[in-house]
Write a structure and sequence with these properties.
Layout: H1 2-8, H2 13-21, H3 26-31, H4 40-56, E1 59-62, E2 64-69, H5 95-107, E3 112-117, H6 125-138, E4 143-147, H7 153-162, E5 166-168, H8 176-182, H9 189-202, E6 205-212, H10 219-232, E7 236-241, H11 258-271, H12 281-286, H13 290-296, E8 301-302, H14 309-314, H15 332-341, E9 345-347
Parallel strand pairs: 1-8, 1-9, 2-3, 3-4, 4-5, 5-6, 6-7
Helix pairs in contact: 4-11, 5-6, 6-7, 7-9
The structure holds S-adenosyl-L-homocysteine.
Length: 354
């Protein structure tokens, strides 16, 4: 079955269900020797890695994440920086601070900067364009990625013209009913998807994605996510476990698991050999070796944090979010060592979709 998924670059809902419900332990499966194929999951991960290695080699790309504002006009039920969270300590970085983050990152070998934030009205199109244009001017060889939510096509076009090349906008779920469970009424799946199509049409390299184990997620909704990804053909797919945040309506919900996330990373890799697949911060948060395990399951991107320390502490999308150690850019050398231990090289390369 795994060979068939790899060959056809396609999965049926039944196959998805089988792979997500097989009773086996991924961490153990990933520790088995290369030639021990007793375990189905071991074989799944081995195949996923083989597919990734054939396209990208034993290389992991790094993106420097700059969380530049946690003000947000939206009220997504899962997110710790939603507008109704009165406990969130709000902050914004000004242009100079953002440029300092880039300078620090560039020195550490980062060639992609990801500007992520809530939907913050303070950052008008004009301000965003000014920031993007400054980074573009100072770092002509770097990729600039934006992740600032839903905007009009005109706005996306302006950012692109100012020098942005990539945009991350997780679709969160491709199922309407599930989307309604995760978001207040003013947000619609139709608009979210339209944004992604607009971004593609403008010429951005686009990333979509979803949380694993978010409240209301089922095999069926995941299957719809995979179908949507096939239709959109994004350059990147960001998936990580849902982790409850104490001040949100989902505070008491269960977190998504390492197990399901690793399986889905591998499945997405088999279906999309070329896609850029990050081992996310959330994955690193639920397990101490989450990121390495993600790479061994077929991921090929890491996104360490370049934000100043006090900003990192306030960008609390979920509880216990990593914000020091390897997640800090200062941990670059450490991260490099950890990846070397599992046979991968952390490279200074924009890591464009190939
Ligand atoms: N405002 C931007 C950035 C959102 S934060 C946007 O709308 O795209 C980036 C991602 O973090 C979100 O897309 C979501 O998938 C993830 N996220 C938010 N809350 C989370 C939580 N509680 N657990 C895990 N991931 C979460």
């Amino acid at each position: 079955m795994i060979d068939e998924i790899r060959e056809k670059r396609n999965i049926t809902q039944e196959q998805l269900e089988t792979l997500l419900t097989i009773e086996d332990d991924s961490v153990l499966a990933l520790q088995l020797a290369e030639n021990d194929s007793q375990s189905a999951l071991h074989y799944l991960y081995q195949q996923a890695r083989e597919v990734a290695d054939a396209v990208y080699g034993k290389r992991v790309f790094k993106r420097g994440l700059i969380e530049f504002t946690n003000y947000c006009k939206n009220d997504c039920y899962y997110c710790g920086i939603r507008r109704s969270n009165k406990c969130a300590k709000r902050y914004r970085l000004d242009k100079e601070t953002i440029l300092d983050c880039c300078a620090k990152g560039h020195e550490l070998g980062f060639r992609t900067f990801v500007l992520q934030g809530g939907e913050d009205g303070h950052f008008t199109d004009e301000r965003i364009c000014e920031i993007v244009a400054s980074i573009r001017e100072q770092y002509p060889d770097c990729a600039i990625t934006l992740s600032i939510g839903e905007k009009s096509k005109e706005s996306y076009q302006k950012y692109f013209d100012a020098g942005a090349n990539r945009y991350l906008l997780r679709h969160e779920t491709a199922n309407d009913t599930h989307y309604r469970k995760l978001h207040p009424e003013e947000l619609t799946l139709t608009n979210r998807k339209q944004c992604l199509w607009d971004l593609k049409e403008i010429g951005y390299q686009v990333g979509c994605g979803f949380m694993v184990g978010s409240p209301g997620q089922t095999i069926e909704t995941i299957y719809e996510d995979l179908e949507f990804i096939k239709e959109l053909k994004p350059h990147m797919v960001g998936i990580g476990p849902f982790i409850p945040q104490n001040e949100t309506p989902f505070a008491k919900e269960h977190a998504g698991t390492l197990e399901q996330t690793l399986r889905l990373l591998a499945i997405i890799r088999l279906i999309h050999p070329h896609v850029l697949l990050p081992a996310t911060t959330a994955l690193g948060t639920i397990h101490e070796n989450g990121r390495e395990l993600g790479i061994l399951a077929g991921a090929n991107v890491v996104m360490p944090n370049l934000s100043p320390k006090d900003a990192r502490e306030k960008y609390t999308l979920y509880d216990n979010k990593l914000h020091s150690g390897d997640e800090a850019a200062e941990g670059d050398a450490n991260l490099r060592k950890r990846l070397e231990k599992i046979g991968y090289e952390l490279v200074t390369d924009r890591g464009d979709f190939s």
